[in-house]
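Table S2 (text version). Query chain:
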Amino acid sequence: MNLISILKILIFILNPISAIIFQNTEIKTPKKICISKKNLNIKSNNIYKLIEKSELQRAIAKDFTIVDMKNKSYNLNDLKGKVVVINFWYTRCTPCIIKLDELNKIADKYSNKNVVFLAMTFENPKAVKKFLSRKKFKYNIVPNAQKVIDDYEINVYPTNLIIGKNSVIALSKRGLEPNIIKELDYTIEKLLKQD
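Corresponding structure-token output:
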């Protein structure tokens, strides 16, 4: 059984649980869940083989136009020639928050490279601003991104995508994975070397 199949089974099992967990919160979309593979006991001696074999790769990324918290606009077509790293998250998702410090290190590492980091959430700017007053996130934060979330069919948080210079999805990872930072780093490095 491959990793994708295991995650699909988990999503199926956890969806009713997430509805119960989130029923008393202000989240308006109970289908959204956070997943951590910490308890799955999935181990791989070579995570790079897993990256290379991902079934979700090689799809053309859907175009989007978004505006971040600093009022800067991004259009995917305008970002051709750059590597685009997207983190789908929200402020009450514990697995989303766990890796923030490491995601910030990746953003710092590639800050002077041809890489754009976007963190998209369905939440409004007020909720995001309140969160960012307590916790730093060095990606370009995009609130009110529900249309992009729907277009990319995001229903598990966090989800990380890397889109190559030619607008092809090079990496798609859902849930909290122990090796996600290594996978992001490896994929970004590989894509930067491509013409």
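Notes on Table S2: The chain has one domain: 3-193. DSSP finds seven helices and nine strands in the chain.
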